[in-house]
Amino acid sequence: MTAVGRALAPLRKVFTAHPPVPVPPRDPARPRHNVFEAAATYVTASAEDDADRLDEAAGWVAPDALAFGINELACRAVIALARERGQPVEAVARGLLGLPGAEPPRAV
What we know:
This protein is mostly helical. It is built from five helices and no strands.
């Protein structure tokens, strides 16, 4: 066995011990949703206190993907609102959460 073969032997054992899990075929009757659709629907349902829609959107994508989408939506929303208000992004974010330091620095 060569040096490369010896080095890769443990890795080979991992892949042969755990064969790939087959992916079930996609159900054409079930619509396909992306992370951002799920995040937008989830946040909207949360704001409207719609538990049924909240649960539906949560099932569209994996939980970590949904968290990523919600984070991306929050970042984009805060940036857009800061631009609209002409305020620093941090001041807008803190203001939306009711945290101290939400006031932008005033010119003297």
